[in-house]
Amino acid sequence: MKRMTMLLPALAILLWGIACTSRAEDRAINIDELPHKTIELPNGSKAEVIQFNDHWWRVVDVSVLSSNDDHDPDVCFEAKYDTLVAPDKLKLFGMNITPTPNDPQRLWASIIVDDRLKHRAADFKRSDNLWLCGTLRRSPTLKGLDFYSNEILKQPADAQRFEFRIGVLEKKADFEALIDLGQKILQQTKGEVRDFADYDKLGNLSRRAFESGLTLKEKSIKTDDADGMYELALQWKEKGQRKNKYRDLVEKVLKIRPDHPQAGHDAEGFGLKRFEGKWLGEDEIALILEDRKKKAEIEQKTQQEQMEHERVELARSVEQRASLLLRQQADLRSGDAKARDQALSAFGEAIQKSVDPGFGKESIELLSSLDVKTPVATALSLAARSSLPAVRRCALEAMAWRGTQQEANIYDALSVALRSEKDVTTVKAGVSALVASGGKGAVDTLVASLAATDKSVRDEFIDGLKTVTRQQFNTREEWEGWWKTNKATFNPN
Predict the structure, then answer these.
(1) Strands, E assignment, 8-159
(2) Distances (CA, A) of 159 to 80, 198, 200
(3) Which residues of the chain have pLDDT under 50?
(4) What's the DSSP call for residue 195?
(5) Cα–Cα distance between 224 and 59 in angstroms, integer?
């Protein structure tokens, strides 16, 4: 075989033939429509293969022709046609392949075809896309490889081919392949001379591939993956060339992890500042502070108005205290039992609603002094719902004392009031009154009060029970079980 001695700026290939069954005109095949799959090679690496003529060909880069690697000989690759430099040699566009170690002047492999393929090669035009499949073999000179072509097919123009590939990859949601394809298209626009219309088409397709790939990639990132989101932000900046998307993703990263160092540095470049754990613009921060100032002023004014209203109401109640007490006492002296019960309920409601703690305390003392034949449990229960803690404490203490006087149902009312009370200091006052009174009624009331939902309140009841009974249980279940067993025989002395 005659060897070329001049160095070409692109790859030159010698054509040798293997018989095929049809002409080029009858075999207009788009390789993107051929069956593709990914396989694992014996060395563990992944490889893409394409099925053609009932055979699987490994997809390689055309630069394989300058290597000595023939471990997987059945290969296919894409290249661009430049010129036919001799009847048996093609020059491929833009190829600069390193000489092999065995032959510094060997810049190409041999591909030999019959007249059918030679005729087809004569019809190729500069920059036509070609697809070649065949077998790599050691050169007879043992210097590099020869490529025995099975087929050379002309492929669609770049724009048509890339648009088809983008559509296929979008359907597969293969974001990595789309990003790689976008980079490949971009490099092709930089490395080849072409008309401006084609240049614009490829530029638009490159952007489409990048944006589709990056959009799909965002959907694959976990919502709490700050590092993955930041990597995507940089890709939008570099490949998608959309600063608004880059900024949006950086801000999303900082919402996930406000202390992300790289995203924080970028945010400062956007003019953002960290404010109370968030990254905001100076205008946003100023608006927040101004809004807070206005709300604080409104709240202060509202509080002052409320305090003035309470002061006026308290003064009015204090002024009316004596007359209201006289009226309530007069109602209680009714000889009609039903009217007296109504008067007691009205008295309790008046205590509950009054803003005058003096009225509440004096009224509760009056109710406590009534004969035990006059039940005041309902009135004291209403008084125990006062908004004034001091009044509620008086009501609880009064109910505990009335219990020692054997008023019916008073302990039940006291248990309900204690379970509802949220103020621990008030609860302590009621518990202390029960502990001081002692007896089964006090223990029964404290055990029943353990149904309260507030743990700090329940702890007060348990402390009271320990004092009264000299038992050391710590849970509601233990106290209820013990009381069920010992209630009948319990002796407080």
Answers:
(1) 11-14, 36-40, 46-52, 55-59, 74-86, 89-92, 129-138, 145-155
(2) 14, 7, 10
(3) 1-12, 14-26, 96-108, 193
(4) -
(5) 37
Q: Evaluate whether residue 319 is within a structural domain.
A: no
pLDDT of 116 reads 60
Please check whether residues 177 and 272 belong to one and the same domain: yes
CB-CB contact of 431 with 485 (8 Å): no
Residues 271 and 198 in one domain: yes
Question: Which residue range forms the structural domain that includes residue 202?
Answer: 161-277
**Measuring CA to CA, how many Å separate 209 from each of 48, 77, 239?**
20, 22, 10
Supply the Cα-derived Rg of the chain in whole angstroms. 47
Locate tokens 């014996």: which residue? 42
Question: How far, CA to CA in Å, does 321 sit from each of 33, 182, 311, 327?
Answer: 97, 87, 15, 10
**Domain count along the chain:** 3
309 in a structural domain = no
CA 448 to centroid of chain Cα atoms: 46
Q: How many residues are given for the chain? A: 493
Q: Based on the domain organization, do 182 and 138 belong to the same domain?
A: no
Q: Domain with 240 in it: what CATH number?
A: 1.25.40
* Same domain as 173, residue 127: no
Residue 420 token pair: 């509802």
Residue 57 maps to a domain: yes
- Helices 196-220 & 226-235, crossing angle to 10 degrees? 170
pLDDT of residue 86: 63
Number of other CB atoms surrounding residue 322 within 10 Å = 11
The residue type at 148 = Y
**459 and 372 part of one domain:** yes
Rounded CA-CA distance 280/425 in Å is 45
- Provide the pLDDT for residue 9: 33
Residues 352 and 479 both lie in one domain: yes
Cα separation of 297 and 128, whole Å?
A: 76
The answer to whether residues 272 and 263 touch, using CB atoms and an 8 Å cutoff, is: no
Confidence at residue 23, expressed as pLDDT on a 0 to 100 scale: 40
DSSP 216-282: HHHHHS-TT-HHHHHHHHHHIIIII--HHHHHHHHHHHHHH-TT-HHHHHHHHHTTEEEETTEEEEH
What pLDDT, on the 0 to 100 scale, is given for residue 193? 46
Task: Note whether residue 303 is domain-resident.
Answer: no
DSSP string, 282-310: HHHHHHHHHHHHHHHHHHHHHHHHHHHHH
pLDDT tens-digit series, residues 432-468 = 999 999 889 999 999 999 999 999 999 999 999 999 9
Residues 168-177: pLDDT tens digits?
A: 899 989 999 9
Whole-number pLDDT of residue 46: 86
pLDDT at position 289 is 95
Contact residues for 274 (Cβ-Cβ < 8 A; gap 6+) = 258, 264
